[in-house]
Amino acid sequence: MNNYLIPANTKKSQLILGFFTLTDLIIFIVGVVWSFIMLVLIKSLNLPVLILIMLPALIATFLVMPVPHYHNILQLLTNIFSFYTNRRQYFWKGWCIHEGNNSSK
Fold it and tell me: What is the model's pTM?
């Protein structure tokens, strides 16, 4: 079975460390820093509280995690949102729009 889409390294050289865009790094750093600040401010050994404190870092990591055929999960979610919110009926406006139609003469 031929699953060839594009060479795997075509855009990798444009990414930071071969994996991240600047937006990805900002999302990841903000999530980790926010969780770290909350860990310092809230002194708790309660497991549910610790999970809630670590949630921003976990969500940020999940969003920038690579997936096959997409840059990362954030890009996949963006494409899914764009597909369902944008128009999906396309009208042909090319050079042969009136081909076979005598109404244009």
Answer: 0.60
